[in-house]
Structure formats: structure tokens, C-alpha cells
Amino acid sequence: MNQTNFHIINAAAGSGKTYNLVLQYLKLLLGSKTTKPYRILLALTFTNKAVNELKNRILATLLALSKDTIKDKNIKNTLCDRLAIDEKELSRRAQHMLRQILFEYGSFDVITLDKFTHRLIRIFVKELKLPFGFEVVLDPKSLLEETVSSIIEEVGKDELLTQLLNDFSISRVSQQNSWNIQKDLNEFAGILLNENDRIPLYDLKKKTILDHLEDLKTLCKEKLKAENKATEIATEALSLIHQHGLEKSDFYKGTLYNHFQAVVQRHYSKLYSNQLALALVGEKSLYKQSLDTKKKEIIDTIQVKLNEDYCEIKKYVGKSLLSEATIKSWVPRSLLQRLEARLEVLQNRKEVRLLGEFNQKISKLVQDVDAPFIYERLGERYQHYFLDEFQDTSKLQWTNLIPLISNALAGESLNGEQGSLLLVGDPKQAIYRWRGGDIKQFVNLFTHKDSPFQIKASNDFLVKNYRSGASIVNFNNQFFLTFSKLFEETDYHKIYGEGSQQEAQKAGGYVSVEAIPSGKKVDENIPVYVEKTNATVIKAIDSGYALQDIVVLVRTKKQASAIGAGLTEVGYPIISSESLVVGQSPYVQFILAILKLIARPNDSEQHKLIIDVLCLLTPEFEKENHLFILNHIHLKSKDFFKKLERQFRFKLSLNNLSKLSVLEAAESILESISLLPSGDPFLNTFIEDIFEFSTTESQTISGYLKFWEKQENTLRIKTPEGTNSISVMTIHQAKGLEFPVVILPFMDTVLNSSNIKNKIWYPFKEEPLSSIKWAWINASKNIQLYGVQGQSLYDQYVLEQKLDAFNVLYVALTRAKDQLYIITQEVAKEGASTYAELLKSFINNQGGTLDENTSFEWGEKTLKETAETEKETSKEEKIKIQFKTSSLWKKKLVVFNRPTKESILAQKKGLLLHHVLAKVTHSEKLSKVIEETISELNSSGETISFIEKKTFEIVHHPILSPYFKSDDVVLVEKDILVPDGRTLRPDRVNLLADGSAVILDYKTGEPKEEDTLQIDSYGSIYETLGYNPIKKFLVYIGSEIRVKNCS
Length: 1047
Prior knowledge:
By secondary structure, the chain is α/β, with parallel strands linked by helices. The protein contains 41 helices and 26 strands. Strands 13-14-12-15-18-11-19 form a seven-stranded mixed β-sheet, sandwiched between helices. A six-stranded parallel β-sheet has the order 3-2-6-7-1-8, with helices on both faces.
């Protein structure tokens, strides 16, 4: 690299990106004059998996260097050369730094961008006016739906809102759509968190409903004016035609005449889906060649005028269509201000914050606060930044980092060291534009068209490919070079042309392209692709590859489900997030059916499901199944279970189950029905989910069933790595991964998707519509009719769609190490509108043939060889970091070991006691909390008596009682996000007016050393937050209450 402190690495797939990141990190870590340099190094990447990989690589390399066992001599030699030290000194430094990092692991800041943003949010809670102990919500769906529902509930209460929503429902019905507007509003509410929409939203959120109604009047008025003007011009054009003795049949297919006539009638649909514009400028025929010569001359004479009228009409039709498209989304945009305000209220009430808001909140902060102040709050002043996957970094994320990085680059440490920045990315792998990622950001920095800093970046392009065999590398080189010409922009042409060319470092490799027959609809092709995929798996196995060597990559979840089902059907074990949905397990459905019958008895549908699963578990009963269903399905549930008891020899009472918590009920069902498989992963995950819900939300059966309805299609089991199974995943999920064998079915995607769900913001810049600011419209070809601005927007949209399609294809084609199988669809012609056409064109250019009977091969397929390096991998020393996990794992183990009734009761008492103590912030609330607990929980008298007695003893304990009587700010079970990434949760913290704090932590059983260490860690955190002194008490709950002062 050049000697500058700002570097950019363009790292193509398989080029050793992580290796170079580790090298540059170690160079600064081991060469710094600072005693603890890891404290001033900040490495940011996208996913937790990438974080763990980078951390492990850094630590493993340090370990190998310290013991001089490193196999990659290049990294050792490079470090010795760059640092001007010998191998012995390098080993000493590595050993020292490894010890330092492991001792102070929380300061080893290799983290995700989201986590860093979260950290900034936490330290500026007061300035951002956020709840002190807020929790982060990753999935916004339920909160946004609740926001929309709360607004719809105001119908009938708010006159203006009622009129607005009623008009919207009526307009939807008139367009033959559903009258239910919730779906539309839910979709629109989602853009509140979308970074790509922030500028239009900022303008629109300033408007009230009354402002929007005034704008609507203006729009309707201008729409009518545009239509009247278009009709006027079209009428004049028809008069001109008639005045010259011409009629409809004189024009080719009557197209021009029909066009003007449609405008007069205000029928604009498909008005410009022909070649009339070319005919009017002489590039196509405007009339038949057999037409009378005199009439030809007349048409030629008036053609210029007709073309002028055509173009003028197009302008007014465009205005009308734009106005109409804007009006269609009028209600959602009119409610924007209310949606945002209501979302804010809900978040404050629930003390939560949506992750999607963080970047925008930080953006406002960094504009008003100097970088040194931010560093002061962080507790560290980072001097060296490493930013991985820069092509996927959003505009806001980058903008938020610039002030901090700029401050580091411009300054020096006390040791005279300058700050630095390393950006690593690959524009060809930018596949997260929908999340705010901007490929231009990387391109403009790399080409020096833009730089937010005073210094110029040095560029490096990693051209060597260490992942794939030579034939795969060469195939991809030629493929993307061939189609780089599809991009007119020079920068993009270079990216996919010379910028895609790599030098293979491995021999071998094999590429196969096959095509399924054409002529079928999309859904009809699915089983054909599945069959081809199954056949391809056999080819890979015949080449000596294990199932775990094989991955099938697809574009959509629907495709993943189909492939997973197809592979499972023929007996292959698979790992797929789409095929591991817990709710699809018949055993889970069985328990859910019983829980549903407890809440709503006598449901014949649930009765049938139970019988079906029992027949699955007892195949010998299958012949009697139909008769049993006929005779018993419509019985009352009480009688139904008596019949089951006789037939299947188990005893289950819905009445008894109804008196239990949902966790107890589920466990009781498992204990009672021995037919259910022990250790089933779906059941284990389901019970774990119930446990988690019980500890954080409610313990009632009805409460969990409502919760289940929202997440039944999203809860999935986690599978351990190393399982000998075929992986099935989306291409997005596979980014950053590599596999010996990659199979790519469904390779017939359209490059420019015309998905009507895609939306575009159109800016109104001309009077009198400029005050409306923005239109939120479908991304259709009609946008081209909206003037110069519309054409520009459409061209940009098409370019973005093409870039997305090419980048996804690039990621897919570069995952394979040894064998790459592509399955596409046969097409009749070459072209560039689908993956299938691209493959057809490329193969034809290579002199090959591709159809349903003829495949194309590149390279030679060979049997798998076990490389010596693979054999030696197991011998290599590895370092494993034990990350702290939630202490709930102990309780989860109790659940999975099928606890006894005594342990269930003890566990329940403990949970209930914590539940009550969490609500008793002050002693005067005790009676009310106990009453509420009794009324909302079905618990035995013994349990309630225990809760009352122990709560009273704690609240009125001579040592503890002052902290339940005071006016302190009380934080109960609130998370503390520690800089090292851990989340701590003390049971109770009193924040006193004098700046001191009191921490109470409740325990059961005998005192342990770990208890003291834990509460000490809580105290240390609050000391760093500025509270002093700190009093710490461990409260042991047993036959008597024991209090240990740990201050």
C-alpha cells in the first residue's frame, strides 16, 4: 500500500479480503507505541458472523505468531518487514498483545455497524429524549401494525380522519380492490424506517391533514385542467385530419386516429404502448404503401403538425396520470404525521426503540455535536478505523461516521501517531440497496470523484482468486466481461469489465449449464427445477462430495421451500431456514391443538388434527383412522379425550390443564403422551419459546396463543454446524460464504423487474404543484410520460434494477470452490432481459449450444480430492473465545430435562416472585400488585401464600425497607449494554437524588462466589455511569430472607 493513512481496497470475491483486513489490523496493533492499541482501533462490519470470523482470525493469527507455529509465512514476513523487527520480537509482541486483549476483551472493538450505532444511541439517551432503559426491537412489523390499528380505531371519534378513511375505502372498492385499508397503511408505515425515503418523508411530515387536503384540491384541479387541454388538442388534431379529407382507414392500422380519439374519450390506458412516436418522425410507416398517392402527400404535409399535437398531448396526459397516481396514495401520505407521532407514543409507552430509527437519530446528533465530545462520551478516542463491506454501507451510516473519522485523520496521538482509515468492499457484491446501501458511494471514492476528507485515498485492487478453481474463475471472467457492455456508464462498464477479471490461484474447477424446457408458467416450472436439482445432487455425490459440501442457492423463500421439500422427499437431509419452521412440525401442531381446545373447547378442526398426529405416531391405527374421525370428531372435547384415553392409553384433562400456566400445560402434555418423540428439536424449540414468553410477557395459555399467531411462520429451529446435510439458502444469505459445490436453479430471473410493489418518489418542481413536494407512485413505465424528470427517474430505476440483478448473479456465481451447476430455462433468442437470455447469448458466443437436450460445460469434472491442507487443519492450533450468554440457559436445561412436579412448582414460585417484585417499585404498591397477581394467574393457594409472605418479608426487611419507601428513581430488570457487547440486567436499582445508587439482586439457594462477582460487575458499570457511592445487596430467598451487603 502507498504511504497514506486513507486506503481503499477493492476486494473481488475470493480474493483474500479477510486476510488483508487482518494483516492491516495486526500491523497497527503490533506497531503502535500505545500500550493498549486495541482500544483505539475500531473495526466495523455488517453481520455478527463476519464479526466472529474477523475476531477469530485476528486472535488465531496472534496465537500462531506468539508460538511461531503460523503456517502462512507471508503474513509473518510482511509484518516483520513493515514493522522493521525480527521474528523473535514479532513473537514477543504477539504474545503480549494476545494476553492484553483476552484480559480486556471488552475493549477489543470488532463489532457490527448496527452495534456501534446502538452504542452511540445509548450514550446520548438524554439528548435524544429516549426512555432511559429502552430495549431494541429488531423486527418492526408488529409495532407498525399496532400503530396503524390504533389510528384506524379513531374512526368515528375524529371527524376529519373518519371522512378521509371512508373516502379511501370507497375509492379502493371502486377500483375493484378490497375495502380493507389496513394493508395499504401497513405497507406505507414501513417507509417510516426506510433510509432511502428519509428526504421525501422529512418534507411531507411537516404537513398537517388540512395541508394535505388543500394539496389534494390543487391536484384534482390541475388533473382536470391537463385532461381538458389534452382533449382540446386531440379534438383539433382530429378536425385537422377531417378537414383534409382523411379518415381512420387512411392511417396504418388506424393507430394515429385511434390515439387522438382515445384522448378525447380520456382513455389513457396503453395509449403509448405502440410505435406511433417513431412513425410520426418518419422511422416507421404512418400509412399503408397502397394508400392513394394524393392522400400520402396530404399526410406528409400535416405530419409535422400532427407530431407536435402528439407530443403536446403526451405532456398533458403525463400530468394527468401523475396526478392520478399521486391521489391514489393520498390517504397514507396524509396520515404520515399521525403515524410517526403515534409510533413515537407507542415506543415510549413500551420503552422500546426500533433499530431502523437509529441511523436517522444519530444523523441529527452528529450535525450538532463535535467529534471530541462524542469520543468523550464513548470513553475511547478511536484513531484507526476499518470499515468492511463498504459497498453495503448506507448513506446515513457513512455520513454519521465521517465526522469521527475526519477528526481521527486530521489529528495525532500523544505519541505522534496519525489516525487512519481502511475501507474494504466490492461494488459487484452490493446487494443491499433496499436497506440504504449505495454502490455510487464506493465507486465515487475509489475513482476519486468524491472525498469527504482533506487527504486523497490510495487504491488497491485484489486480483487474485484463492477460492475457486481456474475454470470457474475463467468462466466468470468471460461472462461478466461479455456483458459489461450493457452498462453505458463508464464506471459501471469498468466494474463488470476489467474490474471483474481475476487471476486464478487454484487449478481445476468445473461449470455446467443446463436448461429446462420452455413454454410453461412460472409455478409449473417449479417441480421441473426441483427434479433437475435432485439429479444434480446425484452428480455431485458421484464426484465424491459429501452432502455437507453441497449448497443450493435460490432467489426467493418460496423457491427455497420448494427445493427443500423436494430434497427431503427423496431422502436427503437438509439445512434450510425455510424448511425448519417450528409451526410446520406435526408434534408442535398437536400440542397447539390441545392448548387451543383449552382456550376454546369443542373445535372439531382441532380434534381432527389431534387424531391425524396420533395416527402418524401409531401406524397400526391408520386403518381405523377414518372411522374413528367420523364417530368422534364432533364430540364435546371432554368426551373426545375420554375416547382417546381408551384408544391410545393416555390420560389428559382439559379442566386440569386450564388451571396451569402455559409452560406447565405444555410440559404436562409432553409427560402424559409418551408417544411424542423425546428430544425432538421442533418440540424443544417450541417449549423454549413458551419459556421465553412466560418469563417476559404472560404465563396464560390465551396470552401465548395470541403471541403464537403473530410468529407461527417465523420461529425456526437452529441447526448445529457440521451436520452432514445439504444446505438450501437464498443468495443473499450466502454472501460471504463458500462451498465446494454450488447448485443454482431458477436462473431465469428478469433483469428489470416490473414488480408493482416497487415504489418511486417523484419530486414536484414546477408550479402550481411544487407545494405538494412529492408523489409516491408505482415504478411502472408510465413514469416516462411524466416529462424530463420522469424519464430521468425511470432511467435511474432501470439502471438500479440491472445493477441489483447483476450483483446478485455475481454473488451466486462466485460461491463455488470446485463445481458450479447452473440450471436455467431454454429461451428461443439471445438477449439481455433475463438471466436465461444472458446465458444463452454467452454460450452461443463461446460456440456452444444450450437447450433442454444439450448442456454446456466449462472445465473438466473430476473426483473430489482431499487436499493435504484439509488433513492438517485439524492439527492446527485454534483459539476459541467463550462469549457470555444469557443465564437463562440453566432454566432452559431444566425445561428440556422434563422436570418433576416439585421442580416445576419451585420454578413457578421463583418466576412469580420475580414477576411481583418487578412491579413493587414502592411499598405502597404491594397490596395492589398482589391482588392483580391473584386475579390474572391461575395458581394454587399454596403458591399465592408463598408469594405474599416472601414479598412482604423483602419489602419490610429492616435493611431493605428504606429502599421501598423512598422517592428514588427505580429501575427494575432494565438492560445495561456494556461496551464489550454484553447485556447485564440487575433485578433492581435505586437511583438517589445525591448521585448514589443502590443495587438489589435476588437469588435462591446457597450463596455462591459468582453471585458476588455478578453484583460487583453491576456496581462497576453504574460507577462508570457516574453514580457514587454504590451500595450492593444480595437478597437470598429461602425459608428465611438473608441479605448480604456487598458494598
